[in-house]
Structure formats: C-alpha cells, structure tokens
Amino acid sequence: MERSNTDSFRHSQYLPFSPTTSSHPSTPLAQKHASLPIPTPTTASSLSGSASTLRYSQSRKTIYDRHLNRSKGAELSKASFAFLFGEMVQYAQKRVSGIQDLEKKLNAHGYSVGQRLLELLVWREGRSGKRETRVLGILQFITNTLWRAIYNKPADALEKSRDHEDEYMISDNDPMVNTYISVPKEMNQLNCAAFQAGIIEAVLDSCMFPARVTAHSVPNETWPGKTVFLIKFEQVVLDREAEFIS
Which residues does the annotated region (Disordered) include (predicted)? Predict the structure, then answer.
C-alpha cells in the first residue's frame, strides 16, 4: 500500500542528518556539524513534559500560589532591577518624540506599578492598617511605609511650600532609578525618576488625594543626583483639609 502525501510529509521532517553524503560538500562548516549528535524526533508527550518542567516546580506550585507575606522582607538584586529598568527606558525612548514625552511614558509605567503596590501594602497591613484622611498622614505613609517597601529606606525630606498652599515636596538625595542610567548630553534635562513620581501619584489618587506629581533634578555639591518630587494637590483636597481643621 502506498503512503499518503500527509504521511510522507510527516516522516520527511525527521530524516536524519548525514554530513557524509554526497549532497553535503566537504567544507569546514560540514565538518563542524559532523561532530554534532543527530537530532531525533520530539513527540508531543515530551514537549508537554518539558513545558511543565519549565513552568512548574516539583511541588506543582506557581508563583501565584505563594503567600504574599513570605516575600515581605525579600530583597531584589540591584543588578536585576537596573537591567529591567534600563530595558524599559530604552523601550519607551523608541516610541516618543522628545524628553517630555519620555518622562510622561515613564510616569505612566510608574503609575501602574503604584496602584498594585498600594494594594499589596494595604493587604499586608491587614486589620492594623488605617485609612489616611489627612494630607500629612498620607504623605508620611508615602515617605516611610512606601519608600521602605521599595528602597528599604525612608525618603530624605518632606517639606511644604511656603508660597503655594497646595504644594509639597519629597526629596530623595540619590534615587536608585537614576543610579545605573547614563543620560547623554543632548538629553541632560531628562530625569528618569519620573517613573518614581508616577508611583507616588498613583498612591495619592487611589487614596482619594488627587494630585499631579513631577520629578525635578536639584543637584548640589554633596548630592549631584538629588531629586525633588513636587506634589500639587487639587482644590478638592484643600477644601476637605479645611473642613477637618474647622
């Protein structure tokens, strides 16, 4: 009985490689492949087995099965963070037309991270946590709890503007997001801490303190990479704060 076209095509995919036949000339490339093992067909069962080995541990549990409190005190390698953040900056840079657009893109990435981080922090606090209703309370939460959860240290300073009632400033003398970023001279106005500003803005918005947060470079002799995060609250926040005072 003759084989069908489908059967012959299926078996032709797995013909063994023979570098010694006349169809393969005796070249350095052919001699290099001659020392390699002959590939064998891979069955569907072996494919599924290898995939399960890659996706699951021996206990058949994924990262989603782990308890969230187990990673509470875990630390991430700075090298890993620097690599991922650098790749994110390069990815965003290819899709923008200027420095302002790039900072907006980084701010948007940080905003999505801030929303998820706040949910995680609130869940970990459990019944001991409280909802902040005052401006000073939410800012202290950001400069202490949030900053420690991300950078394992509090923010360096929290100040209120003397000229504008709706503005506050959080200072970071050496933002980690800028530590491994090399900014070219033609983009010296770029501050990648806009990603960090997006995290702050997301936490404020999610806690019902709508505000606009921007990152500004304020270098000095001691801290050449110092960054100030300017927080400008909306009028509704000031009106609510005035009601608490009265």
Answer: 1-52
